[in-house]
Design brief:
Elements: H1 3-8, H2 21-24, H3 28-36, H4 44-54, E1 59-63, H5 69-79, E2 90-93, H6 97-110, E3 119-122, H7 128-137, E4 141-144, H8 146-155, E5 165-168, H9 171-176, H10 180-188, E6 195-200, H11 205-214, E7 219-223, E8 233-239, H12 245-255, E9 260-264, H13 268-280, E10 285-288, H14 294-306, E11 311-314, E12 327-332, H15 339-346, E13 356-362, H16 369-377, E14 382-383, H17 389-408, H18 411-428, H19 432-444, H20 457-465, H21 481-485, E15 490-495, H22 505-516, E16 526-528, E17 533-538, H23 543-549, E18 553-554, E19 557-558, E20 562-563, H24 567-571, E21 584-585, E22 612-613
Helix pairs in contact: 4-5, 5-6, 8-10, 15-16
Length: 621
Amino acid sequence: MTPDDAALTDAPEELPATPGFEELGITGPVLKAIRDLGYETPSPIQAATIPTLLSGRDVVGMAQTGTGKTAAFALPVLERLDVSQKTPQALVLAPTRELALQVCEAFESYASRMKGVHVLPVYGGQGYGVQLSALRRGVHVVVGTPGRIMDHLAKGTLDLSELQYLVLDEADEMLKMGFAEDVEQILAQTPEEKQVALFSATMPPQIRRLAQKYLRDPEEITITSKTATNKNITQRYLVVSYSQKVDALTRILEVENFDGMIVFVRTKNETETLAEKLRARGYSAAAINGDVPQVQRERSVNQLKDGKLDILVATDVAARGLDVERISHVVNFDIPTDTESYVHRIGRTGRAGRTGDAISFITPRERYLLKHIEKATRQEPTQMQLPTTEDVNSTRLSRFDDAITTALGDAARIESFRDVIAHYVRNHDVPEADVAAALAIVAQGDTPLLLDPADDQLAKAVAADNRPPRERTTREPREPRTERRGRGDYSPYRIEVGRRHRVEPRQIVGALANEGGLGRDDFGAINIRPDFSIVELPANLDPAVLDKLSGTRISGRLIEIRPDRGPGARRSAGPRDGAGRGDRFERRDRDDRPRRDRDDRPTRDDRSDKPFRKPRHKSGS
C-alpha cells in the first residue's frame, strides 16, 4: 500500500503499528514484486492473515470486499509454491468470471519476479481449448468459477490430487448464486491434507457449517473497513452488458462535458484494444499499462497534462499515484471487485479541492458490487441513464453550429469562398441554401450527422440490461404459467438434460450464465422434464450468445440448446403429471419466505433476487 493508499484507508483504531511485509514472512522475489507495485504497509487483513497462512493453519476471514484480501492469500501461496511441480498446487474458487480474472491478474503481478509460475483462469464463456492446452503444459495456480471447475473435474482434465492450498473467495456470494453443492463437491474431490482459506463479507449459518465441515481448527479473523471517498467526487453508474460497453462509452463521451479522462480496464491487453477503438471513433486516446515503457508512459501523461491527449486507458498499476489537474472524469469500464481499488481509481479526480466525476459500468451480474461500494465508501452512487439519441443529436448540432460560427470569424477565407459559391449558383441555378447543405454533406462524409431515434438498438439493449426483476407480494394473484409464456420478451429453449441426469435449476442457470455471459434477469421459467428441460431466455437473444451456449455441458453432458417449437414447449407451461408444478426459476424476491430443504444444505434459495422453487418430493421436507 502506498502513502496515497494509506490516506484513503483508515486502519481500525487502537491497533499497534503494522509490521512490514518482510516482518510478516514475505521474502525473495515475491517481496521484490510487491515493492515494484508500490506496496509498503500491509492492510489489516494482510497483517493478520499472512503469518497464519504461512504457519500452515486454516483461516476463516470475515472482511468486506476491498480490504486487500487477495494479497492476503495470494502472497503466502506464492511464497511456498514449488515451481518444479506441474500439477495444480493452489485452487481459488470465485463466484464470477470477473472476480476470477481479477484474482488471476493479481497472482501474476505478485509472481512477476518469479520464474516459470503459471496461473490459469478457468471460467465459462472462454473456450475449453485454451484451458485444456494450459492444463496439459502445467499450471501451478488455478483460479476459477465453480461451474467450469466442476466441468473439468467431470471430464478428468483437472488433476487436484496434489493440491496443497484451497481458497474460497467471496464465499457468501457463491452460496447466494447457487454454487453451494458445487463447492462441496469440489471440496470432496481435493486431498484431505491441504490448507484451506475461506473469505466472506458475512458469516451466515451456511458459511459457518461449511467451515466447520471442511476446515481444520481455523483461525477466525475479522476486519472492518473504514474506506471513504472524496466528497467532491460525483459517483454514477450505468448497468450495461459487456458487449455494449464500447458503444455506451462512446455515447457518454459525446454528451458528457469532460476535460481529461482516465478509463480503467482490467487487463493490459484491454488497454490497447479499447484505446484503438476510441481512436478509430475520433477520440484522442492512449493506453498505459505495466508493459508500456516508462518513457512512453511519461510522454502520454505529459500529453494529457498539456491537452494534447484527452483520454488515458489504464490498468490500476499503471495509474498508481497519477495526479493530473485536467482529469475531470474517471470511468470504470471494468468495475473492480476490490472496493479499495475502486476508491483509488476514482481518487484520480476531485483532487486538491477540485470536483470530479466517476462513472462505473456494471454488468447485470455485477449489481451486487454496488452494495460493497456503498458500504465501503459511505456514499450511494447514482444510477445514470444512457444518453438518448436526442441528447447526442443536440450535442452534435451545437458543435456543428460552433464550427460554422468559428469559420465565419475567418473573414479573409470567407470572402474568397463567397465568390466560388456565387459562381456555382449562377451557373447551376441552385439556391445558396442547397449549396451550403451540399457542402455540409461533403464535410461530414458517409457518417450521418444525426442519429435516428427509431433505430436506437443500443438504447434497447441497455434498457433490457436495466430491466428490474418482477416484484410480487403474497397478496397479488400469481400470473398463470401459460400467460407468462405468452409474453414477447422470452422464448423457450430446449436443452438435452433432464431429471434423469440429476440436474437442478441452479446448475442450468450457473452453466448458461457463465458460458453465455447472461445475467440473472435473463432467465424466465425453467421446467425440468425426465429427459430434457425447457428454459425461458430473452426473445432477442444474440445469435453469438446462442453459439457460445452450444458447447455448454451440464453434469458432463452436452446440452444441445435450440429453440423449442414442439409440443414439449407448450406442455411445459403446465403442471407435470404426478409432480405438481415443474421445477421453476422464479424471477422475484422470496427472501421473506421460510426455506425448507431435504438435508438443510444451502441451496439456490439463498439467491437474493432470483430464487427458484425446488420440486416436491415424497420424502424430505
